[in-house]
Hints:
The complex is a heterotetramer. By secondary structure, chain B is an all-alpha fold. Chain B is 81% helix and 0% strand. Chain C is mainly α. Chain C has one domain. Chain C is flat and about 45 Å long. Chain D has one domain. Chain D has helices spanning 2-30, 34-58, 64-87. Chains in contact: A-B, A-C, A-D, B-D, C-D.
Amino acid sequence: MNRRRAGRILTAVLIAALAVPLMYGMVQLPAPGHADAPAHTNVSAGYIERGAELGGSENLVTGVLLNFRALDTFGEVLVIFTAWLAVAAVAGTASNAERDPVPPSPVVDYVIRLLGPFIAIFALFVIVNGHVLPGGGFQGGVLLGAMLILLSLVMDAETVARAVSARSWIWLRATGVLVFAMVAVMGLPLAGYLFGLPDEPGLRQVLTVALELGIGIGGGAVLAGLFFAIAGADRS
Amino acid sequence: MIDAAHALLVCFLVIAGAAFFFIGTLGLLRFPDFYTRIHAVTKCDALGAGLVLLGLAIWRGPDGEGVRILALIALLLISSPTAGHALARAAFRTGLKPWTRNDGERDGEIPGDASERD
Amino acid sequence: MTGSVTAKYREMRVNATDLFDLVLLALLLTCAIGIARLKDLAACAILFSAYSFILCLVWAHRGAPDVAMTEAAVGAGITTVLFLVVISRVGRREK
Amino acid sequence: MNEWSLIPLFWGTLIFLLINAFACLWRGLAGPTLPDRILAANVIGTKTMVVLVLLGLAREQGIWLDVALVYGLLSFTVTLVAGRLLETGRLKGAWKQ
């Protein structure tokens, strides 16, 4: 009991001792958004000036993600695909194997079937406009995944299996990785280095949108696949 | 003159929406059990958000942003009641007992507390 | 004399932006500490989605709509759904 | 002129809504049953969505409306999935509060 109390006091003292220098540092930071802050005077000025031209997209974030740091983004796409592979290896890929005892509410059923196409259209809008507006592949992909999860709440497994076979699901989930790898290799002849985008603006735009679409469809299918794999796993 | 009327209308709509939000919050905090709370909250939220967004859409006029706000209103008016319905149905099916007048007379006990099925 | 007093008063008056920041931070802190003290994992997951919604407001306010959208989509939406479905498999109680 | 004069109203409304969300958070943290907490999170989601729209219009950032649409769709998804998991009895658990 006494040792526990001493440990608590020690923790509090340590946290306080850590907090003092951190607060001291916080006070000396420049105000957020201040023009003279080091973050805004050194490298980011160059990005803001020439990023839209070099990166090939109006939205600088997308340009940085898909061009300057393409290898990093490729790693992210690989990570979520690997996550699905791991979950599927542990939990199996059977989706909604047992029928739920409670039928879904007819209201929810109707509304989800009504909203589904609109969610899909909005997701495509977010994906395709990723180089102009906020958003892009991942965000639109999450919307697609949310739509698939919502549909899986009201549809039975047989209908889904008839629409998309298990083999096509795997290919859909690999779309992101495959498209990204293809564009990366295409950089070799077109731009001279891996992950390079060509200089010609039209072709570059097409490749950017293709990348976003690949990430979006692959990401959505992977997220929905995670949900199906965990929800449909045997409870043993 | 039209501008003043326009501004007054937007003002009225936004303040009315905020008032509905406040009533919904009061209901969420003060009502005795889940069903009465969801009754207060879903109505007041849909109405409050709808009125505020309608005021903003009128303020923007029919440009791209106004149309997006209208889409948001449509989404809200469809999704908010559906979510409330699904939640209330789920609670009822899992055996959450509604509050009755007798429950209030036992002092110091929150009615929803004892009724969650194990 | 009076002019300087009113100028000082204007300086002291809390800016709407600052007030907004303060309320947001108070909300975030309350939410985080409350989640840390809860023992019911499903409730933690649900409140974590509320936390993400508030955090998304912070990102938007700081001028990063891309991050805000990611936070709303991934942090508040998909992560909560995955948490909930995992909790439905492994049990709700914190060990 | 007219547009300029309404901005303070927007700021006031959004701070008022945030304080309301604070009150709802109390229900989320204290609420005796899980449906109460889901309801509180749903309400906080709606309020913050309206706050985001107001903030975007007050700061003339119309593109934030897309973020608000994503908000609305995903808070809807979370509520429906949580409700369905509750309904099918998978989220029950021998646990009160």
